[in-house]
From TrEMBL:
Coiled-coil residue spans: none
PANTHER family with a match to the protein in the record: THIOREDOXIN REDUCTASE 1-RELATED-RELATED
Pfam families documented for this protein: Pyr_redox_2, Thioredoxin_3
Keywords: Flavoprotein, Oxidoreductase
UniProt entry tagged with the keyword Oxidoreductase: yes
Lineage, top ranks: Bacteria, Bacillati, Bacillota, Clostridia, Lachnospirales
NCBIfam families listed in its UniProt record: AhpF_homolog (TIGR03143)
Protein name (Swiss-Prot/TrEMBL): Thioredoxin reductase (NADPH)
GO molecular function, a single term: thioredoxin-disulfide reductase (NADPH) activity
Major enzyme class: oxidoreductase
Originating species: Catenibacillus scindens
Domain Thioredoxin-like fold: 467-531
Amino acid sequence: MKNFYDAVIVGGGPAGLSAAIYLARAQYSVLVIEKEKIGGQITITSEVVNYPGVYSTDGKRLTEEMRRQAQSFGADFLLADVRALHLDGYKKLVDTDKGTVECFGIVLATGASPRRAGFAGEEEFRGRGVAYCATCDGEFFSGKDVFVVGGGFAAAEEAVFLTRYAKKVTILVREENFTCAGSIVDQVMSTPDIQVYFNTQIRKVGGNGLLQYAEIYNNKTGETWRYETPEKSNFGIFVFAGYAPATELFKDQLELSKEGYLMTDRNQKTSAAGVYGAGDVCVKQLRQVVTAVSDGAVAATSLEKDLFAMYQKLNIKREKPERRVAPKAVQAQPGKEKNEDDRFITGEMRETLAPVFGRLEKNIVVRVYLDDSRLSREVEGFVSEMEPLSDKVRYEKIKDRDGGYRMPAMAICDDAGHDLGAVFHGVPGGHEFNSFIIALYNAAGPGQPVDTGLEKRIHSLSEALDLKLAVSLSCTMCPELVMAAQKIALENPKIRAEVFDLAHYEDLKEQYQIMSVPCMVVNDRDVYFGKKNISQLLDILEKKGIKE
């Protein structure tokens, strides 16, 4: 990572990616910093049909094309947690857990995160029936009743999505009507498996381990009723109660609305010179992909003028970034055993992985434990495609000997075969493919850097701790926890991090009453739900290391 850029974009969703495309195409050096996953909230949307010029796609594919486009114009990308912004003066500072970057201009595209509804028991039953992502957790409620809380676009869209799994979907709208476009409302009202109650809220939920009852009331009439499942059964509540803008980084430096959103003018300029806002973090009437990319384009072109004027004023001759060729998918060749569409790893992915594997410093071994199951055959197929990608990573297949693991398992070891504590059960596809690659990168070096304070905390863990991580390959929130846990395990030999694709381990779901991912079980006893970064995970593990 360079330590100076013309512009830094904080946030890698559609708004940030759009800004990166425009700035990089104008031949300014650009760094996009994203703390979780490039693409933002839209990556969990399974169908996008209202983006002009694109008949139908999904959020992940749409934003991946945006990323490739920005990268082809020369934009750089960094997965890091921004800790502080220094916005005074013509030179800005962006402090991250991967180092400090200087720049002349900033685009804030930090987005917004789902709000809690606020009913009694919401936090207690999070992961036990209360959920916030239909794509991640919808399958857990197959054949069950589901309530959706909210009256906006997300609530309406996700309610329709949940009919794929749920026996019945009931939408509880606090207001007298929906607050989204009529087209999606018409779709909701015409779906047979959806029932809607207006002026209705949840007051309290409860149950024995899993969610089993909800107290519901009409805020207009005052009438209260109770929904309850039969004994030993459960149901789900999906909360889509709007979003809270991610403004914590700059709330004391920039002007915000009374609701906490970033104030910008028609050129997306904030109250600080050289600082622009874009996307859901800003005050705006419509929060959609199309308005996010519009914000990003406006912010970038406005910032371009600032940068051009600044270079002239300071009489600085700037270096233009090198334009790159966007990687293209390799087409399947005649005579190949597998078509490109049948592969776990596409040609485009192989090209993207080449520079990563080219930086590996040490030889490592991935010990693959296999049995006769279908899942093992899938793992073996995945491994066969991974083997040719790097001469630093050797795959050792062992059949019918479990080595103490649930099979199938892929255990990362050093060159001598000593287990390093990072294990994956299943095929690391979907959102977990990057997590697996990062684990290899961390094991073989140079690895992702962490700041000195976090490194000391990792090595200070003195008690042996076993972490079981239950994930779904469709979950966008799981990789952050997985990468954090495996980084800690690879740095500290007393920590083990085993990742399970929960679709193949139903017994874990039942044993720990898991109804949402990501889920972490520490020492087969203490259960935690939700995404966590390294610092948040260390907060938990440090307490577990204190003998009670």
